[in-house]
Specification:
By secondary structure, this protein is an all-alpha fold. It has 13 helices and no strands. Helix 3 crosses helix 13, helix 5 packs across helix 7 and helix 8 crosses helix 9. Keywords: Cell membrane, Membrane, Sugar transport, Transmembrane, Transmembrane helix, Transport.
Length: 291
């Protein structure tokens, strides 16, 4: 009897709970994650490393001596980097604010209201997303030229909104669908107008979706090159992505300056991502029906 009980206990101890990985599987998983992280981080770390090697340090990137901040001081003090940075901030913030407002209004209207053409409107947004950016350069250039918006912040902001709004409207429409319609009815009972209901009740609950769409709009405008290089003709109006091209000419390429400027450009994008992630997590944990 004692032998049978001991055998049963030993068998029970050897049985692994469901969902628990073996040591070999855990080691393999962690190894794969470490390798994937190293592959993803290597290009970024290499750019940072080259930017700290001086003007000609990129020619011998394997040497571990000669580190300095010469590239950064040259970019910040002897180029128009700060002007390009200011232009990018104006354009990116303008495209983010305008794009999110338009996309949120369109997504909420399609989610809550039934008006003639509301379904074709969303399909039109989807079809617009299928066109490559290169195909849109010529018609947008002609349109901005007729409106006298070439080489202006307003023209570039409207152009970037034409890229981000269709995707953001689709995303926000799906998020608004998850918010109970009873909240709208409660707002109308309290005497709020449709816009008041949207602004005071729905927008706070839609913070996660708004954070994601704002981040997408900002990144679209912050790192875009094709439209900015074609629509902005004066160097005083260059954005950062276009200004970087001045470091690479036909006769000589200043890769040290290029890498230093690239590192500086990633800082605002990282800050915006951190802020969007924080609001996203906060919005999700608060719940969509919290009163």
């Amino acid at each position: 009897m004692t032998s049978t009980s001991s055998s049963t206990t030993s068998t029970t101890q050897r049985v692994r709970p469901r969902g628990e990985r073996s040591r070999a599987a855990s080691a393999g998983l962690h190894t794969a994650l470490i390798v994937a992280s190293a592959v993803a981080l290597f290009p970024v770390l290499f750019v940072v490393f080259v930017s700290l090697r001086g003007r000609d340090g990129w020619q011998e990137p394997t040497r571990l001596v000669g580190f300095s901040l010469d590239n950064y001081t040259h970019v910040l003090g002897e180029t128009k980097f700060l002007t390009w940075f200011g232009n990018s901030v104006v354009v990116a913030l303008g495209a983010t604010v305008l794009g999110v407002l338009v996309a949120a209004s369109a997504g909420y209207a399609v989610s809550r209201m039934r008006f003639p053409g509301h379904r074709p409107l969303m399909w039109t947004f989807l079809v617009v997303q299928m066109f490559p950016m290169a195909v849109l350069i010529v018609p947008l250039y002609n349109l901005l030229g007729q409106l006298e918006l070439l080489d202006s912040y307003a023209g570039l902001i409207v152009t970037y909104c034409s890229i981000s709004v269709p995707f953001c409207a689709w995303m926000l429409k799906g998020y608004f669908d998850t918010i109970p319609a009873e909240i709208d009815e409660a707002g109308r009972v309290d005497g709020l107008t449709p816009f008041g209901t949207f602004w005071r009740l729905i927008v706070p609950l839609a913070r996660p979706g708004l954070a994601v769409t704002a981040f997408y709009s900002f990144i679209t405008a912050w790192g875009e090159v094709a439209f900015a290089s074609q629509f902005m003709s004066s160097e005083e109006h260059y954005t950062l992505a276009v200004g970087l091209q001045t470091f690479v000419g036909q006769q000589k390429a200043e890769w040290g300056l290029m890498t230093a400027a690239a590192v500086l450009i990633t800082v605002p994008a990282g800050v915006v991502f951190f802020l969007a992630q924080r609001h996203l997590v906060a919005g999700l944990t608060s719940g969509g029906t919290k009163g």
